[in-house]
Amino acid sequence: MAIKDQNNPSRIRSVAKALMILDLLAANQRDMSLAEIARAMDLPKSTLHGLLATLRDFGYLEQSPFDGRYRLGVHLFEIGNIVANNWDVRKVAGPYIQKLVDELGETVHLVILDKGEVLYIDKRESQQSLRIVSQVGMRLPAHCTGVGKVLLAYLHPSEVKRIIATKGLPRYTRQTITDPRRLEAELEKIRARGYAVDNEEIMDSLRCVAAPIRDHNGKVCAAISVAGPVARLEGEKFQLAVELITRTAAEISAGLGYRPALGSDISGT
Description:
This protein is α+β, with helices and mostly antiparallel strands. 44% of the residues lie in helices and 20% in strands. Strands 7-6-5-10-9-8 form a six-stranded antiparallel β-sheet, with helices on both faces. It has a two-stranded antiparallel sheet with strand order 1-2. It has a two-stranded antiparallel ribbon with strand order 3-4. A hairpin with a 6-residue loop joins β8 (196-199) and β9. It is elongated and about 75 Å long. The two termini are 47 Å apart.
């Protein structure tokens, strides 16, 4: 009969210990002997032996036939691939996007960078009288949109230069950044603060706030933005939009498996 943890009745002690073994081996990134695992976990060898044997039998651990040391098993890799394949950004982001629309009452977009352009893969419409003319499948330039600038900010500089050389920096409004040096400075600012702002750069009277979404490898794979008329996205409403968009991006990233390094946050490179 499995024994439950008195401090957490829903937790099975043996299962918790087995998972702690996997975490230990992952953290050490090397093969470990029974004695080393016992010392690290402060558990008797007799207790560990059965746990290790069970994990080995199910493929979660492998044991060297030469020195008896343990390492993580290939079954973890197989499961990891299944999990990664299910981390579809649209599927994960959907509920968070709708929550953001409900909280702010403005239109929210989810985009990726494709062939040097912003590609809209999801949109949740505001119920406000003045709405944003955009649709799923639409493409826009990267240099003059909040989401585009976010995605450019986390590319290698050589890739940004290649996109500029290919696509150019055409002007759409008086606010559009058309100087490569100004764009470079803007991207540096975005990396420092963790979000981007489009201040009437693609369309007059339109303001957007965008933040990066990271996948389980820590790579920026998409961006999310809230967009609305400048008159509605200013002052306290603008500050709230910044707070909510960065928080939502972090939540979606976590849902995709991103775990920031200790002491860092979603805005780190």
